[in-house]
Protein: 6-phosphogluconolactonase
Organism: Thiomonas delicata
Amino acid sequence: DAGVRWHRVQNAAALPGEACRRIRNAASDAIRQRGRFLIVLAGGDTPREVYAMLRSVDTDWSRWQVYFGDERCLPDDDAGRNSRMAAQAWLDHVPIPHDQVLVPPAEQGAAIAASAYARTLRDVGEFDLVLLGLGEDGHTAGLFPGRDLGVAAEAPDVLPVLDAPKPPSQRVSMSARRLSRTRAVLFLVAGASKRHAVRQWRLGNDIPARSIRPESGVDVVIQASLLCV
Ligand code: 6PG
């Protein structure tokens, strides 16, 4: 893939520092050039340490606008919620105005949350940075193999996911098309369990992560050993 730039880090422990540096740079560029920084967060475990490091970044938090690429349909205080993880690790500790952290109302179920979140995104243009993880099966956000990834031009901004193979089965996810409408994408990949998915990606096999195709290409910060064949 011409559009994929792999950035090796020595080990999983080095990933948060490299990711935080890239996020901080993207934020300062966006704020300097356009007065604000629109970032879409990834869920799961990998970003937790990245979010914790962002607490100490020197930035004008009032310029940040935070969205979620996907959210699990669980009660809003459930530890499994991506928004709760980000809040506990980072967002509850910095002065981003509450109305600038846009959380999908996923506790209301996939269908209601998807249409509500799509309305939230209607007046939002191109993101500045989209953070994404990589699942063992090659999924990213809530876009799973064999399911609708929302890549078509007419695909909705947000998809209800009713049959995710990884619990909880109900989620909401931005579509591949909407996640690709961004100036930059940063995948964060670590953990031996991701080796197979990375190999599929590099072989050009059609895993959902490859459906994220912004004009600028994608950057992947990855534990170096996962790129050794
Ligand atoms: C989710 C995430 C998902 C995640 C991958 C990797 O809600 O599950 O958004 O797409 O990024 O599953 O998860 P880990 O970082 O925990 O390996």
In short: The beta strands are 4-9, 37-41, 64-68, 70-72, 129-132, 158-161, 171-174, 185-189, 218-223. The pocket of 6-phosphogluconic acid is lined by residues 42-46, 70, 72, 82, 133-135, 139-141, 191 (CB under 6 Å).
